[in-house]
Amino acid sequence: MSTESRRAVRRRKGLSTWRLVRYADDFVALVFGSQEDTAALREEIATVLAPMGLRLSEAKTQVVHMAEGFDFLGFHVQWRRKRGTNRWHVCAFIANRPIRWVKARIRALTNRLSQQSMGSVLIRLNQIMRGWANYLKHAVAKHTFDILEHFVWWRVIRMLRIRHRWRWKDSRRRFATPTGRWRRPAMDGIELFNIATVPVTRCRYRASNIPNPWTPANHA
């Protein structure tokens, strides 16, 4: 199964094929075949890992159909039909766990009773959102970024209202322009980062001949 032609020959014979995608100690096996083929491959993987003193984690290892999708490295990979067509594509979305994590960090930093200076809060918020968005910007993430932008903006505004005892009209006077547009909260020249402005880009294609520790050439 090292080349596309060899995998095509196996498929024509009714045999299953699979590809391994790995990152550090995490990996996913993508199987073109039946559920029985996938279960057999899982047992084979466990057999290969056993001599190295490794075993598959029961909590993290599961067999799923691409229509259900699976979480891998913060992404939710799922088979979806393109709207208005009968064409199906494998899409990567942001998984629920990273979204819960970043919202928890935002809530902790924008606690209404927090005694941190507004400048330090904005710096930390910007650092978290920039790093989080740059890692996940290759997913189908535009809608999620828009939701998080609305979430963090309101968290900051509400924190300021409680801290300074502003009424709603006081907030509008400070953050709304005469045309009705809202300004970004800022302090000491530090402006709240707009996560919705992060461009969503597709992953750069890399050929399948990427060197790995098991390539024979690396042991020559």
TrEMBL record:
Keyword entries, A-Z: Nucleotidyltransferase, RNA-directed DNA polymerase, Transferase
Domain Reverse transcriptase: 1-77
Any one GO MF annotation of this record: RNA-directed DNA polymerase activity
Superkingdom in the source lineage: Bacteria
Transmembrane segments: none
UniProt xrefs under Pfam families: GIIM, RVT_1
PANTHER family reported for this sequence: NUCLEAR INTRON MATURASE 1, MITOCHONDRIAL-RELATED (PTHR34047), PROTEIN YKFC (PTHR34047:SF8)
Name of the protein this chain belongs to: Reverse transcriptase (RNA-dependent DNA polymerase)
